[in-house]
Design a protein that fits this description.
By secondary structure, the chain is α+β, with helices and mostly antiparallel strands. It has 2 domains: 190 residues, BirA Bifunctional Protein, domain 2; 44 residues, SH3 type barrels. The protein is 27% helix and 32% strand. It is built from 6 helices and 12 strands. A hairpin with a 4-residue loop joins strand 8 and strand 9. Helix 2 packs across helix 5. The chain is globular. The chain binds biotin (BTN).
Amino acid sequence: MAGLETDRIGQNVIAYDEVVSTQPLAHEAAAKGAVEGTIVLAELQTGGKGRLGRPWHSPKGTGIWMSLIIRPAIPLPKTPQMTLLTAVAVAKTIREETGLPVKIKWPNDIFIGDKKVCGILTELNAESDRVNYLVIGIGLNANSLESDFPSELAQIVTSLRIESGEPLKRVSFIQRLCQIFEEEYDHYLQAGFARIKQEWENHSYTIGKWVTLQTISQQLEGRAVGLDEEGVLKVEDQTGQIHKVYSADVNYRAN
Ligand code: BTN
């Protein structure tokens, strides 16, 4: 991308008009040795993938549908921190480019008010305990109008254009996102997770809210109180006991 001021994030771009999903294409590129920072972009995804096997609505030309390949030399248990880092980078880019008051819903949804504007899907390729690479899928509703969403989504999702009233310049947004991601990522690799934890908490939709969580092993209700030093969500139940939640589907209720 001409004018991109990064060392490696976004320096190699693989762009398509129409794909099923950018995720498997990024895996394919990574397996063939694509350099760290490679991004796979598409104008339209016919089978966009969301978390937990859900579909991701990805109509032509209205969004940013991209998958980023990174190859961090970190232990496997730390890889969920890359999702938190990505959410921070996206939230900071949206704030900077549009001024909109975005929030991060744990672990990886970006919200404006009570509506989702962006989702992140992180997929890991590892051998025994070594990370080969991560594919981080970012789906951002950029220029969609309300009429672009199917009726079952219209109540729960939004776009930057709907919220700001202005069309988004997608190429300059992607460039800025690559720059902010690289700054955060380089800092993380040198200095660790503390700054991401702070920035994530500053942008958090979740902290302070009553949540009902369905984890693999239990249903839990309580107040989200913060992240621990590793990025795991801490939830305080009614008895004051703190639970650490690594992965779950989260529902919210009024305080
Ligand atoms: C979520 O469920 O919130 C995650 C959505 C991730 C969507 C993006 S769009 C680009 C990349 N390609 C996909 O098929 N999914 C991710």
